[in-house]
Amino acid sequence: MRLSDKQTGSHSNHELHGMDLHTFMELEDNKNSIEIAQEFDVSLRDVKKIKKKLNRS
Fold it and tell me: Which residues, 6 or more positions from 32, have their beta carbon under 8 angstroms from its beta carbon?
């Protein structure tokens, strides 16, 4: 099966928007969304999208 560029990029190195998802999940338990956004230098909207995607899987 052929994968698109987005699929290969996110599955190959477990990163989304340039952040490590394992680290994101660890911080999610201890910090609020604003602190996570500042930690990874992404927008609050991106943090909310990632949380939503993690809850689906």
Answer: none
Report DSSP state, residue 20: E
Question: What does pTM read for this prediction?
Answer: 0.60
Instruction: Please name the residue that has the structure tokens 């996110």.
Output: 10
Residue among 55, 25, 53 nearest 40 (CA)? 25
DSSP per position, 25-38: HHHHHHS-HHHHHH
Tell me how far apart the alpha carbons of residues 44 and 9 are, in angstroms, rounded to a whole number: 22
Q: Which of helix, strand or coil describes residue 15?
A: strand
Predicted pLDDT at 53:
86
